[in-house]
């Protein structure tokens, strides 16, 4: 018994330096992002970026063609037609959404559609692989990331949808699930996961959330209320706007390491390490290239 106890104590003493060494080798989230190589990033196609010009500046939004191609294509068409010129962000609910478009519902479209079939989720015959977050979620069987977007799935991974994290881009609708087509909204502040699979989410803000947060809350008599100067496809205005963005590939080793770093923060400031992160609390690294 004495020999066994001595052996155990020696084992603990000998193991301590190894554990300390392993801890010291863990990288912070910032270090992972800084050292990720170029192959672990993807350049966002200008055809998939919408520039929305608001009173205080422009927001850039990436469209999610994989999960909601009908809505993404229709918005491009609306932008090309100049549909949003002279319209406004007419609804602002603190901590919820900023909603814009044609409050009168009377402005005609040309080749675009005013009502679209709902794309609440993408159904596939075989499981769709995502970078999955392990752990419980109150709204879905599985959560994770696909092509730079936060997503959720059913247990079989045959239904996949973009979730209502802060800064998502979605299409408002009436009681008819196929009534959405022109009235977009952006989530402000909190995640709104209870809306998942009740409405079509088809993008996220890459840059410019501050311009949504700076919108007026109430109309001022004699002044235009949150006017939209224009909504344009970035590829169509490359002569005047050369903005380029890159997003870390969410199936890359760097992003998977980033998930672990966010779950277990190694920075000296942190006292607790929960070994958990919610899908909407996991930021997707996004950078302006030019």
Could you explain the architecture of this structure?
The structure is a single chain. 33% of the residues are buried. This protein has helices at 2-25, 29-35, 69-81, 209-213, 253-263, and strands at residues 41-43, 49-54, 57-63, 88-93, 97-101, 122-123, 131-133, 142-146, 149-153, 159-162, 168-171, 184-187, 200-207, 230-233, 245-248, 286-288. The chain is built from five helices and 16 strands. The termini are far apart.
Topology:
Blueprint: H1 2-25, H2 29-35, E1 41-43, E2 49-54, E3 57-63, H3 69-81, E4 88-93, E5 97-101, E6 122-123, E7 131-133, E8 142-146, E9 149-153, E10 159-162, E11 168-171, E12 184-187, E13 200-207, H4 209-213, E14 230-233, E15 245-248, H5 253-263, E16 286-288
Antiparallel strand pairs: 1-15, 2-3, 2-14, 3-13, 4-5, 5-12, 6-10, 7-8, 8-9, 9-10, 11-12, 11-13, 15-16
GO molecular function: isomerase activity
Signal peptide: 1-15
EC number: 5.2.1.8
Could you tell me how far the N terminus lies from the C terminus, measured between alpha carbons in angstroms? 69 Å
Q: How are the strands ordered across the major sheet?
A: 4-5-12-11-13-3-2-14
β-strand amount: 25-35%
User: Could you give the order of the helices and strands?
Assistant: HHEEEHEEEEEEEEEEHEEHE
* Tertiary shape: globular
